[in-house]
Each structure stands twice: as C-alpha cells, then as structure tokens.
Amino acid sequence: MKKNVFSLAALLLASISMHAQEVKFEEYDLDNGMHVILHQDNSAPVVTTSVMYHVGAKDEHPERTGMAHFFEHLLFEGTQNIPRGEWFTIVSSNGGSNNANTTDDRTYYYEVFPSNNLELGLWMESERLLHPIINQIGVDTQNEVVKEEKRLRVDNQPYGKFIENVKLHMFKKHPYKGTTIGKMEHLDAASLEEFQAFNKKFYVPNNAVLVVAGDIDVAETKKMIEDYFGPIPRGEDIVRNFPKEDPITETIKAKAYDSNIQIPAIMTAYRTPAMTERDAYVLDMISSYLSDGKSSVLYKKLVDDKKMALQVGAFNLSQEDYGTYILFGLPLGDTTLETLLAEIDEEVVKIQNELITEKDHQKLLNKFENNFVNANSSVSGIANSLARYYMLYGDVNLINTEIEIYKSITREEIQAAAKKYLKPNQRLILEYLPQKDDE
Fold this sequence. Notes:
Layout: H1 2-20, E1 26-29, E2 35-40, E3 46-53, H2 67-74, H3 87-93, E4 97-102, E5 107-114, H4 118-130, H5 136-155, H6 162-170, H7 184-189, H8 192-202, E6 208-214, H9 218-229, E7 252-258, E8 265-272, H10 278-291, H11 297-305, E9 309-318, E10 323-331, H12 337-353, H13 358-375, H14 379-393, H15 398-408, H16 411-421, E11 427-434
Parallel strand pairs: 2-6, 7-11
Antiparallel strand pairs: 1-2, 3-5, 3-6, 4-5, 8-10, 8-11, 9-10
Helix pairs in contact: 4-9, 10-16, 12-16, 13-15
C-alpha cells in the first residue's frame, strides 16, 4: 500500500511540474516585418530583451567567411547615441548583463536587466538595429579581437579543428562546409563597404525576431516596442537558395593533423536531416543512449569496462538545412584507432539489429524530460527558446510541445533511424592525428 501511495504522489508531482512548465506567450508582427514575442512572468523583477537575426555563417560569401561572427562583435562597438566602447558600461552600471553568440544559422543578442530597466534594453537593441556606426576604427579593433579568439579557441586548442575538418569533408556544395569563425585572411581582405553592405542586407527588422520575457506589463511593453522599433524601415527581402548536397554513397576516408595534441582520435560522421525533421529528434535520442553520462553504452564499455578509451562520445549536430551525426573516441594505451572504431561500430550495429530495452528507453525519456524542464527554468532560457523555435523551426509553441515529440519516439523508430542514417557507406572516417615533426 505504501508503494502505491508513493507512486500516486510521484504522478501528481509530475503532473503539477509539467503544468507549471507551460510557457505562455503572445506573438505578432510590426508593420516593418519584425516579429515580436512577449512572455510575461512577474515572479521575479527581471526582464530579458533579445533579438535573434536570421543570419549565420552559411549566409556569407565564400570568399568572405567569418562575417556573421564578426558582426556579433562589431555591433557592440557603438551607435550614433551610444559612444564607442560604452555599451558594456551602460549595461553593467544599470544592473544588467549581456552577451551574444553566432551559429551557422543565426545570430543572437540579449540583455538581462532589473525589470525597471526594460525600456533601456529595448532602446539599446533598437539602437543596434537603427543607428550602428560601422567605421574603420571599429572594424580594425574587432579584427584583432576575433583573431585572438580564433587563436585561443581554435588554433591553440587541442582538438580545436576537428569540427572544421569534419565539415570540410561532409559538405562539398552547401556553405556548411565552412566554419562559423571563418578565415582571418577573408576578414583582412574585406573592405569597409563590404561590412556596411552585410549590415544593410541582414540587420533589418524583417530578418529578426524580438523577444521580451519576464516581469513586464504587456500593454506598456507593446507601446515601447512600437516607439523604438516601429519607425525602423523594412529591408529588402532575403532570398536563400543554397545548393543541395549529393548523397554520400561510399565511405570517405581522411586524415587531419593537429600540433596541439599528443593522443590521436578517430571520428566518424554521417550526414543527417534538418533539425525540424522527426528523425533529427530520434538521432538525438540515439546519441544520448550511446554517450550521455557515465552509464551510457559507449562510456561504460570502452572507458570503464574495457579501458580502451580515454574519451568516447556521440552527438547529433542538428542545423537548419542539414545535420551531422558524429561519433568519436580517443584510444587508451596500445588500443589502435581501427580497434576503437570497430568497438564503436559494434554498438551501432546492435541498435540497428536489436530494440533497445524498455528500461533504457524509459531512461532516455526521463533524461529528455529533465533537459526540457531545465532549458526553460530561467527567463533568459525561455527568451532564447522562444526566438529559436520561431526562427529555425517556424513553431514558437514547440517551447511547450517539443517534449511530446521525444516522448512519442518508439524503440522501433530508434532502430529504424540507426539503420537508415548510420550506414558505413554513408560516412566519413577521419583520423585526427598529432602533427608530425616534419609537417
């Protein structure tokens, strides 16, 4: 009887938790095409103002890579009404914090303020859009900042170029073959006019979504948004027509060298569907099954039990147009890359030939439900999710319903996706090796 009481209590708590997690929002368009999403949460005196622009590394000219990421830095330089170098000072002196980030698909800027500074956050983001100052001083300053970031995070980082080498082989036509940080020689060669043209094309209201989340009065917020963003002129419509990749039908074998490592790595990569496809969600679950945590299949087998690997993992890099599913391992002791790959492949074949257990399936569902709750546990996390679901998925309400997609995925679907996408003849095998002395 006691067990049944506890089970009932757990069910009731889970039900209450899920109900409390529902994120309510309102969305609408300004006349200039800017999409607006509002989420009211008056439980704490905090507000997030954020703008996501539909521009990333894939939108760049192939001889001017790195532009989108460069603008992530450049648009903090200053505006007609914010003196150069004062952006961060204004934010911090008003009790706020801010940041930005760029991917191949979008660029995201946000501020978190005490809610009595909502208007300040809206004004600053409207300034970034309406009155940016893009001059040679700012370009030269941020050029050095980006170069230092590349040296720190890529050039001098162990295994820092493995994604770059994977993408280079996985994509021959689509701009995903490049890197988000781009090539420094491209940025060095770009003229001031090219930077200004990039801003004029992509940093327009009809290529953006504004999210305001937190302790707000909706009517007052709408008025402020109209005052600050309404007068900004609409830009030209952006047309995207990226080339399609040919299917991979034969194993691609390649090597890459890294002077920052002493231990080699083996990597395999498979081209997979866009992030909006159901199979992308299924592949997320497969990667979690294989390598999420110390109890996962690959970690337990190769790191704990057989002690053949220092590290092993799988992840599904889902993007707007394609995805890339990557498996990797770092060998331990005398284990060869070939042996480690065979051991990893063995576990993939098991998923293809056998249904995972009901216990493992339930464990996956629990993990994804926990991740879902955590992603929306803060106002800033909610703002990010609202912007991303609108811009990259075309469905803002996924912030409430995406977990139902994961919960509906069956063991049979997991097996079918592994069979369909994780085929040996549809992959890259990359040996990532220490740089030789003579190279």
